[in-house]
Amino acid sequence: MAGLNVSIAFFLSVVAICEVIRQVSKRLLPLGVYRGLVRELVSSLQLCACCLELRMLMEIGPWGGGFGPDVILTLLFITYLIHGVSFDGASANPTISLQEFLVMDSSFVATAVKLLVQFVGMEAAGILTTHYWSWELTDFHLIQNLMALDCSSSIHTSLYHGIFVEGVCSFFFHLVALKFQHSHPLYRAPVLAVIVTTLAYIAGPFTGAFFNPTLASIITFDCSGNILQEYVQVYWLGPLTGMLAALLLYQGNIPRLFQKNLFYSPKSKYRTPKGKAVPGLKQTGGNGEGQLQLRTKPWS
Q1: Which of 4, 150, 181, 185 has a Cα-to-Cα distance from 191 of 20 to 30 A?
Q2: Where are any strands of DSSP class E within the chain?
Q3: Contact assessment for residue 247 and residue 261, using Cβ atoms and an 8 Å cutoff
Q4: Could you write out the DSSP letters of every residue in 17-32?
Q5: What is the mean pLDDT of residues 112-136?
Q6: pTM, two decimal places
């Protein structure tokens, strides 16, 4: 368990350092620079660094540390829960950034900058984690360094099935994220952590269940077993297709591409009140038009 404790300390250290960077940057830098650059870069670094360590535990832990999938899934849930609370509105996911562009919540330039800094954060996480592994604080890291030059692909199924799996995972993730997009982070984060953990448990044996192109790029794109074109099809085309399907199902259109709602008819925000019968008035029909007549009592 000593190796597991070191990994947990690494998770906490990365989160703490990234949170300090966020808070200092928020106070010293203009808000636009913080939101468009620093927030996405730091969150991408945090996500990728923690997932690299978690991936190492998943591959080596069962036979090197004697702990099973339940430990990995618990750590996955906790890390994503912490990410959801600490990201401060960042996505660290290219498909979410592209979704914000398609619903016209972000401009083309802002989206391009987000995608760029997400990949910068990914590369920084790879450098940080590799340097940390080189210290060989545990036997896990020693084994990881020996295996690093000969890692295997995360795709353990056919190409088309892999695209389908990543697309379905992305579809459900984005559908839930859209449903809870306006909820408080304290409510939204546990829900997303549960859906990520569930999808990882179900689809992990097939493709790793990344449904995040940046995360997949740093973890498995350099491994043998598949060519770059196949990786791009599974981990880029699949999640993007799932995101588009979720967005279309959720609101019936894609505002950046077309405004017409394909599934849902617009509801008027004004409701016509139903009138009540007035005593002494009688409604009669004449030529299809309603007429009102006054009831009077005959003179006695």
Answers
A1: 4
A2: 281-286, 289-294
A3: no
A4: HHHHHHHHHHHHS-HH
A5: 95
A6: 0.85
